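Because discrete structure vocabularies remain unfamiliar, we first show an illustrative case, written as a sequence plus integers encoding its fold.
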Amino acid sequence: MKIKVKGNQNEEIEDLFADYPYAFHSVDLKNTKIPWHWHEELEFDYVLKGSVRVVTPNASYVFREKDGFFMNTNVLATMENIKGERPGWVESHLFHAVFLGGHFKSVFETKYLNPIMQNKKLEIMGFRGENTEQEEMLKKLNQLSALQRKKNTEFQTRNCLSEMWLLLMQQLKNEENNGFPVKRVNQERIQAMMTFIQQNYKEKISLEDIALSASVSGRECLRCFQNCIHKTPYEYLQEYRIEAAKKLLRDTDIPVMDIAFQTGFTDGAYFGKVFKNACGKTPGSYRKNSREEL
């Protein structure tokens, strides 16, 4: 499975449609890279095998085999394997709020969904079987995955998610009573600057250009990138250019030199050097190998 990200770094969810806004993905992180992204959809995940680290601008969360977690709407995050541990295999359930809430401003939306979706303190919540609600949530996650392997289970899927949502609300109440620590900081700024890079990576852009997109100083731009995604703006720009080049190498027959220019590199030799440092092979070898794998 490949994670598709739109031009504004908003993830495009595969297999999620207006008439049934729910999707089930089984992701082997040994073979899949999860870039920094966010999406409007809500998400429940279960670690089927191995271990994973979910990183947001505010915190790093480790989940191991048989753990589960919830990710709130529009949370900027990436997911990665943990060095020295077995690569993770994650089952993900993604759904739009309308799947549970129905029509706009319904009682389901205002009374049940919004208190969580609009909670700026909540980005990730883990389930490790530490209390009754968490144990029940993990059971429900397994039931939900099992439903996706059967036909005609749309109603059961929605019912199961509704029950999980009530468990989530109870768990949140427990966490808040203990002083829930998570706060979203700087996310709007970093999302604005990442969006600017996505829209302008083909051009020559400076630190000042990136900073201006979020109405901050160059110094604040550097601080925000380092604190949120632990990279400089230039490193992030370079990585995005390489990912864009990889897509063109896989999906088109455009000459390598033209791909270099189309992805913001002004020198073909430099592009080849940067690409090899990032991917361990030349652009030509990458293209050949990716097509042999099809």
